[in-house]
Amino acid sequence: MWTRCGSSWLWFLTFLSHRVLAGELVDGYMGGHVLLPCVGGPSNTTPPTVRWLFEGNRKVYSVIKGADDLHNQDPQFKGRTSAFPAEYNKGNFSLLLTNLSSTDAGQYSCYIIKANIQRDVTLQVKAKPTTDIMTPGDSDSTDDRTPKTPLLLLSLLGSVFPNLYR
Q1: How many domains does the chain have?
Q2: Does the residue 160 lie in any domain?
Q3: I need a surface site. Which of 20, 70, 109, 141 has the fewest CB within 10 A?
Q4: Are the CB atoms for 36 and 94 separated by under 8 Å?
Q5: Are 110 and 123 in contact (CB under 8 A)?
Q6: Is position 141 within any domain?
Q7: Runs of H (alpha helix) within the chain
Q8: Each residue of 13-60: pLDDT tens digit?
């Protein structure tokens, strides 16, 4: 019994040491922009090193020792990515991807190196929703075309976007 319990603890400790967070699904629209979330614990000890990869090996964005590094960025993403350096000390390494196209759909992975955290995000890119013109008195409470935004994304946007326009 001790061996069984000991191996369970060993598995649990191994799991904690590799803190891989569950993947998240994010919807974006052709020509629009999307925020790919990546939040880990704040680091007070050393400047962070973070890597964003697309489909496992294509370099999207890097933060090396606290500074943005776009060397060797995959050409598909050049000029279309930005992060929020003012948020790095809070553990927020979310990535803004602009001018979305269908080739952007797929799995993105954010690796926070020192914290040993991997955050997977699957991006779905959809056609732009059409907008119907409603006249006064029209009511369409069953309209499901409006994208649903997770509460986490709303909280990230509240702390991130004010810094974009400074």
Answers
A1: 1
A2: no
A3: 141
A4: yes
A5: no
A6: no
A7: 2-17, 151-160
A8: 333 333 444 589 999 999 999 999 999 877 666 788 999 999 999 999
| pTM value surpassing 0.70 | no
The residue range of the domain holding 70 is 19-128
Q: Quick one: DSSP state of residue 139?
A: -
- The DSSP code sequence of 24-65 is EEEEEETTS-EEE--B----SSS---EEEEETTTEEEEEEET
Q: Which of 96, 65, 73, 108 is nearest to 164 (CA)?
A: 96
Q: How far is CA 131 from the centre of its chain?
A: 27
* 139 within some domain: no
Cα torsion for 100, 91, 50, 122, to the nearest 10°?
-40
**Amino acid sitting at position 23:** G
- Cα dist. 54→121, 139, 140 in Å? 10, 41, 38
Compute the radius of gyration of the chain from its Cα atoms. Answer: 19
Yes or no: say if 73 and 79 are a contact pair by the CB < 8 Å rule.
no
Residue 85 lies in a domain: yes
- Residue among 125, 112, 106 nearest 50 (CA): 112
Residues 91 and 42 sit within 8 Å (Cβ to Cβ): yes
Pairing of strands 20-29, 81-82: unpaired
